[in-house]
Structures are given as C-alpha cells and as structure tokens.
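User: Predict the complex.
Assistant: Input components as received:
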Amino acid sequence: LAKTTQPISMDSYEGQEVNITCSHNNIATNDYITWYQQFPSQGPRFIIQGYKTKVTNEVASLFIPADRKSSTLSLPRVSLSDTAVYYCLVGDLNAGNNRKLIWGLGTSLAVNP
Amino acid sequence: EPEVTQTPSHQVTQMGQEVILRCVPISNHLYFYWYRQILGQKVEFLVSFYNNEISEKSEIFDDQFSVERPDGSNFTLKIRSTKLEDSAMYFCASSGSSVNQPQHFGDGTRLSIL
C-alpha cells in the first residue's frame, strides 16, 4: 500500500481557496486517490476520489498530474465550518476483498475569520 | 443520503468486561470494516468483512476481538476481556460492491475502559 505525505497543518481565512497537496511517490498502477474530512468526535467523511487528471464535485476538486505521484485537494472559498483534518489515502479499490484503508495523520486545516 | 449508524455513541466499561459495539451499514453495501482511533492518533484498520467472513485483519485484531453479522442489517465488533489500552473511538464503515466505491463511515463509538 502506498505511503502518503501531507503537511501536518495549514491555516487559511474565510473565503480563500485552500489547496492541500499529498505526495504518494510509490503509488501503484491500480491505486485510487481518496480524500476524507474528519471533524472532532466524528467519523471520517468521504470528500472526493480520483485516478488521474481532474475530478470535481459539489464540495471540492482533485487535481492529479500525469505521473500520479502527488495529488492536490482544492477547497474553494472555505468557511469556518471547513476547519477539520483532511486525509489523503491511496489504495487499490479493485483489490477483491482487500480494501482496507491505511491512514496517515492528515492535514489539520484551521480556517480563521 | 443513507448513512452508517453506530450504537452506543459512548460506552464505559470496567477492565476485563466484554463489550459489543454495534453498527448498521448502508443497506445495499456488501463490504464492512472496523477501524479504531486512539485519542490524538491516526485511524487504524482493524478488520474487513465480506460474504460473511473476515477478509483481512490487522495485527491489532487479536483473539480478544471478533466480528459478526448476525442478521441482514447489523455488524458487530465484540471485545472480550477489555484492557485499558482498548480505550478509543471505534468506527464502522461500509462500501458497495461496484468498483471504486468509497467507504462510508459512522460517527463512531467512544469506548472508555476504567
């Protein structure tokens, strides 16, 4: 399973765009990139997932370069409620029954007024 | 939007006692998981479950742990003879059968061992 590296913490202000980059140099051909958000005392919440290029949903965008050795989660116009820990995970979602997720420490995002 | 539900939200138990943590996965999902998160630490995989059997388990998931899907809706984690170090948040997750479907998590059970 690929290891990921993210900044431990980031600070931003309301209304700004926040980009969190994750490195996964050893990503395998079948691995997908998935981002989760976690608030204190709550379970991780799925944000977005991609394999290559760009993926966009109502919450965020995910940019993946051609070599797939990194990915960037982009949160447009953050608000105070976006203060949370963001996790980048890579794994082979096609791996039969073996779909466990290996977690790092994530990026603690603080959005200030 | 369908969600994973876990009960109880908080469980306090004396060391050495047995606890059962309950989860109701999303109804059409086929893959089920338990994770734990010790306060201030990262989320750790415990076990995955598919087709009524364990698919994979971590080294944390030793003989004191067991999982069961007793009926069509519940998925339980049993911890026998709890220890102080079992104190943590325990998260249940489920995912569908189609490829690339992400895991969806419940809000967890906070287990406190006294």
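Chain B is about 0% helix and 50% strand.
Let me know if you want any component modeled separately.
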